[in-house]
Amino acid sequence: MLEEQCTLQVPVAPGGAPVFGHLFRFARDRANFLQDIRSAGDIVEMHLGRRSFYVLNAPESIHDVLVVQSRKFSKGMLFDRVRPFMGNGIATSDGPFHLRQRRALQPAFHRKHIAHYSEMFAGIAHQHVSRWTGGHVIEMDREMRKMAISMLVPTLFPSARDSATGQTIEGMGEHISGNLGVLVQGVLRATILPPALAAVPTPGRRRFLNSATALRRLADAAVKQARSDPEGHGVLALMLAHGEGDSGGMSDLEARDELLTFLVAGIETTSTTLSWALHVLARNQDMADRMSEEARTADPADITPAALPYTSRFIQEVLRMHQPLWFMGRRALEEVRLGQYELPRGAEVVYSAATLHRDPVYFPEPMRFDPDRWLRQPEKSLPRSTYIPFGSGSRKCIGDGFAWAELLAALSAITKKWHLHADPDRTVRTVADAQIHPDSLPISLTPRH
Ligand code: HEM
Questions:
Q1: How far is the CA of 426 from the centre of ligand 1 (A)?
Q2: Which residues, at least 6 apart from 43, have a Cβ–Cβ distance to it below 8 Å?
Q3: Fewest CB atoms less than 10 Å from the CB: which of 24, 82, 104, 351?
Q4: CA–CA separation, 403 vs 392, rounded Å?
């Protein structure tokens, strides 16, 4: 009791320089820096120039912030920087507005729809892998982005084929794909750099602004088209249901912001996870064979975790070891007590699921990729908020079931048809920008018989 009352000073991460603090180390090698400072304490303060961030290392404090005391936090600085480009959608908004949008969108992601989506994703994945030809190197990271786009876009606006933009889903996919990468890079730059530096009109900054405008135009056109089609289906039609401005429906602007949010939140995350999955499969033929066998013998109409248990454990392990979203944040709206520490109002707190998922205290031999660890140590046996690939609490990923359906469908279709071979002359490097992703992923294919 006495111990609970005492307040400790939050330790500062070692290695800070005068004035700049940890900025250079963070800018140069951020993922390893966050990994290294785990041993400095459950909560550690880091300084990026004049800005302070409290890094939450312990699952208990992460759980406290995301779940127990979540009402005392807003989404914070990272999302302030995203908002001008992505709008005030469900991922960036806070408070009652967020609650309203979440309630309006939740039905589209209900479990009962996932079975229908799964069937559709299996068809799309099959079409996609049937177009590949064996014998030459394919840049699989790009392919996975295309696949993720071709799964998400028709779910958001099924009538996209003859939309007002005049583009087919593939055409829109190319357009989105080209612009999304630039947008995501630009947002990270805007987060790390002080605002004055981030606003310098470099060619990169101009590309970023152009891409943001292009995606906004595309979303505007899709909303306009959906508004003119009262018979329309999909998530966008659901957003607009009941007419503009009345109690149930969203305004065009709100729907546009949500659409952009889904494009940004739902494509890169899934495609990066798929890329890491293929990276592992191309280096572990035994795992690929097991997955292929499972896909071939399973009921093709049942693409669920229960029907594909090995593939599911494999996905769990990819999301543990290669968690794409390495840096998430919140801002304290009032003074908050987290364990033995008191954080001031306005404190920016951050956590990294990527480093937490590699903590040997919770995951023995964390650098060993082992899908069967989930048989020995089921997710439920872990302390709360220790394994959080989709976050936790009221801001947990709304698309988690959707992402699982995409991942299961894609990996089953790929391993059913193809052997994957890593390029022996290339070392795949890890890049940590807005997500942790492979720098490129050259893989060659031979057909399975
Ligand atoms: C493997 C793929 C995915 C991963 C790892 C992932 C991860 C996450 C995480 C960690 C959060 C919580 C962020 C926070 O706490 O601040 C989140 C939120 C969100 N995700 Fe995902 N996500 C994935 C796929 C998707 C997909 C496919 C969609 C859409 C179809 C989606 C839409 C969203 C949205 C809208 C939010 C914000 C929810 C809210 O604040 O209420 N995500 N995601």
A1: 31
A2: 10, 11, 54, 55, 56, 57, 58, 61, 338, 339, 341, 343
A3: 24
A4: 16
Domains observed in the chain: 2-447 (1.10.630.10)
163 exposed, middle or buried (CB, 10 Å; 0-12, 13-18, 19+)?
A: buried
pLDDT in tens, 29-85: 888 899 999 999 999 999 988 889 999 999 999 999 999 999 999 998 878 877 877
The alpha carbon of residue 304 and the mean position of all alpha carbons in its chain are separated, in whole angstroms, by 21
**Could you tell me the mean pLDDT of each successive run of 10 residues in the chain, 449 residues long?**
70 90 85 90 92 95 98 90 84 92 90 88 95 92 92 80 50 66 68 69 75 83 84 83 61 92 90 97 98 96 94 98 92 96 96 95 97 97 97 96 97 97 90 86 95
Helix (H) or strand (E) holding 246: none
Looking at ligand 1, which residue's alpha carbon is closest to its atom 7?
390
DSSP letter string over 293-341? HHHHHS-TT--STTT-HHHHHHHHHHHHHT-S---EEEEESS-EEETTE
Q: Ligand 1, atom 27: nearest CA belongs to which residue?
A: 266
Using a 6 Å CB cutoff, which residues line ligand 1? 90-91, 102, 152, 261-262, 265-266, 269-270, 273, 324-325, 328, 389-391, 395, 397-399, 402-403
CA of 67 to the centre of ligand 1 (A): 16
